[in-house]
Structures are given as structure tokens and as C-alpha cells.
């Protein structure tokens, strides 16, 4: 397997970024839903720490992935795709990345405006003054950005299915 992308297929680095992000999000979303339903307890605090840790990992992976996209451009789209499909895909990717950053940043700001420390793995952050109104605002952004990401993810999966079964293009093979 090649390290870099080729003209037709994604390389190892792009695939690892893609699938690790996918797996972490597959864990994060249900964990977040579960946390919301829990009463305050030691178990909730422990699970929330895992949720925060995985969220920060997703933030770093997403930032690294965007940098990698500039270093190693993605494979060319098939000639059979019309411009509208390419534009729609770019819009979906843009909003997927935007929602990933909105989720992680709003989650971090929610915690920081609650007056809590946040271990950002390489350094720690702490706001001096709590602001519960801002914390609630960032929590709301966190929730809605998650739902937006799920919607965009479903669109992404549906596009792969349409390309596979209707256009007879196996896009998935580029990412496997």
C-alpha cells in the first residue's frame, strides 16, 4: 500500500485519517447521547473525561487531515461525474469539516466557560472567570453541530451508495 495518494486511489495516511475519524465518531456520538441522559455521578464524570479526550483527538486528527490534504491532494474524480456532483461533494466536505471543528471547539469552550480545566493533551487551558450563559450557548452549538454532522454523514454515505449502485462506480474501493 502506498503512503501517498495516487491519481486513482487514496494512500495509507488519508485512509488512516478517514477511518480513525469515522471510528472515533461512531463511538463519540452515542457516548454523548448517553452522557446527556445520565445523572451526575462518578461514572458520568469518568465517561465525560473519555468523551473529552476522544473529542480532542478528533480535533487533532481533523486539523492534521486538513494539512495533509494540502500536502497530498486527493485522487481525481471520475470523468463521468458532472460538475454539479463535484460541487455538492465539496460543499458536503466543507460542512463536515466545519461541523467537526464546531463540535470540538464548542465542547471545549463549554467546559472552559464552566470554569473547568481542560487538558488539551499537549497543554492545559483554564478560563479565569466562569460564564454559565456562554457555557450554555456553546453547549447548544455543540448539540446542533453534532446533528448537522450526522445529517452530512448520512448524505456522504448515501452518495457512496448512489455512485455504487446507480452510476456503477466503486468509490469505496478508493478508500479501502
Keywords:
mainly alpha, two-stranded antiparallel sheet, 176 residues, 2 strands
What does this structure look like?
Helices cover 71% and strands 2% of the residues. The protein has 5 helices and 2 strands, in the order αααββαα. The chain has a two-stranded antiparallel ribbon with strand order 1-2. A hairpin with a 4-residue loop joins β1 and β2 (124-125). α1 runs antiparallel to α2 and α2 (42-71) runs antiparallel to α3. The mean pLDDT is 88.
A few lines on this structure:
It is built from five helices and two strands. It has helices at residues 12-37, 42-71, 83-113, 132-165, 172-175; strands at 118-119, 124-125.
Write down the Rg: 18 Å
The beta-strand count equals 2
**Helix percentage range:** over 70%
Distance between the ends: 11 Å
- Report on the biggest sheet: 2 strands, antiparallel
What string, H for helix and E for strand, traces the elements in order? HHHEEHH
Structural class: mainly alpha
Question: Helix tally?
Answer: 5
Arrangement of strands in the largest sheet:
1-2
Uncertain regions spanning at least 5 consecutive residues? none
DSSP strand (E) fraction?
Answer: under 5%
The general outline is: elongated
Average pLDDT, rounded to a whole number, is 88
Amino acid at each position: 500500500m502506498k503512503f501517498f495518494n495516487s491519481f486513482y486511489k487514496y494512500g495509507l495516511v488519508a485512509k488512516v485519517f478517514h477511518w480513525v475519524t469515522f471510528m472515533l465518531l461512531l463511538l463519540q456520538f452515542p457516548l454523548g447521547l448517553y452522557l446527556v441522559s445520565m445523572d451526575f455521578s462518578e461514572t458520568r464524570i469518568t465517561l465525560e473525561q473519555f468523551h473529552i479526550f476522544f473529542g480532542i483527538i478528533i480535533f487533532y486528527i481533523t486539523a492534521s487531515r486538513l494539512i495533509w490534504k494540502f500536502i497530498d491532494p486527493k485522487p481525481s474524480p471520475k470523468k463521468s461525474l458532472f460538475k454539479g456532483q463535484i460541487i455538492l461533494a465539496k460543499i458536503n466536505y466543507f460542512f463536515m469539516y466545519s461541523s467537526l471543528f464546531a463540535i470540538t471547539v464548542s465542547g471545549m469552550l463549554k467546559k472552559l466557560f464552566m470554569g473547568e480545566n481542560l487538558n488539551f493533551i499537549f497543554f492545559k487551558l483554564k478560563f479565569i472567570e466562569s460564564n454559565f450563559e456562554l457555557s450554555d450557548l456553546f453547549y447548544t452549538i455543540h448539540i446542533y453541530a453534532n446533528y448537522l454532522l450526522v445529517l452530512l454523514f448520512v448524505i456522504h454515505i448515501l452518495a457512496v451508495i448512489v455512485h455504487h449502485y446507480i452510476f456503477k462506480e466503486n468509490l469505496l474501493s478508493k478508500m479501502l
